[in-house]
UniProtKB/TrEMBL annotation:
This is Amino acid permease. Keywords: Cell membrane, Membrane, Transmembrane, Transmembrane helix, Transport. The keyword Metal-binding does not apply. GO terms for molecular function: transmembrane transporter activity.
Amino acid sequence: MGKPKKLSLFGLIGITMAFFGTVRSVPTLASTGWTQIFYMLLAACVFALPIALMSAELSTGWPEEGGPQVWVKNALGEKWGFVTSWLLWVQMFFGMVMVASTVGVLLSYVINQPELAHNNLFIFLMIIISYWGITLLNLKFDMVKIAGDWGAIIGVYIPFVALVVLGVIYFAKHGINPDSYLGHFEAGKLLPDFSDLGSLPTLTGIIFIFAGVEISSVHANNIDNPKRNYPIAVIASVLLLVVFNLVAGLSVADAVPAGQMELADITQPFVIFTQDLGIPSIFNNIISLMILIGVLVQLSAWVLGPSKSMIKVADEGNLPPFFQKRTSKGIPITFVLIQAVVISLVSFLYVVIPDISAAFLIITITTTILYCIVYLLISISAIKLRYKMPNVERPFRLGSKGNGLMWFVASLSIVAVVVTILVSLIPPASIAESAHTGYVIYQVAATVIMVVIALVIYKFKKPEWKKKEK
């Protein structure tokens, strides 16, 4: 057999962008007006790029399957490796509720009942029905294999291009709309208003656009000349994502009237564009259906992805044999059903929080905080492994000599992650003042409980939990 074909530079850029291409985050970005330029550049430079570059070194030095869990385990020990894999699993409880919340909104436009997009009970029921439906289908069929490639094209790329094209045409026709989130341009609007702390948590929602940036590092060993080409691919991908998201974000910010952005409703700007440009309304039904397909395909990928990683952790003896159960097709049934039950419980937030946009932002922030703890562990591990295992070959290495560049990049990442977590604890402006304390308690409790559960499980694990080799 010949050697496996190496990825080209452009191939890796395409794969990296595929991980982050989504129209779902555009309303969150657009809601910050001109400040989105500052937020996106900040998120890219101090969050996405440092984590992607560290992950590239770690994945080429420790290429075994498992990624972050393997890196942290080698650096900080098995306990923190388990915490890492656990957090990457439990963050999806919140992340998938946020993603699934768009199902009801999109379906309301598909069936020409847009008022349902504001009905909390309808949104809640659609989360339950869609996630459990996708879960049951995945237990029977390989849905990612069936729908993966065309699902991304139909549900992500075409709608994103359509949004950008319509937005540019709308801007060419009207210029800057003074009643929109952009309003009249002033240089001061490019920076956040630090006197309005309630606006800062939106930065967390924007940083979430880049959550998962470490995933593309698994391809670092499969590219020609990784030392040269991987950083080029990462930087090019992040810059392209910044440009595309900003064009879309600024276009939507220019179209939606100030104070009326619906964060969970990506169809809202399409409706504004089509009405203004004289495009038949059936376009909105079609584009909503296309995005809905993309959301369902994304949900399908997440149903099995993290659970397959967790069952390997369970087999190593970190969880009781109950968690090691598989179906005849090898699907980790216990993990799949547990995550469906917990996601159903978390989705109750859409019943108890009247404002759907507020619920969407709160859950996005919770997901980002959990991701940030993983990135904190990765950053510390990247430094630690330079001293603990200096002789491990790293085809891609930050800095040809010494550890100075690694210290700089990792420190930048640590500061960015800590600041993100702190900003996340500021109640957003959309939360009523009477609920501010409840918001902080919820975010702290959700984070602490998820970490403590992992530490307790690890503390009481037993040798007999380890799966016996057949």
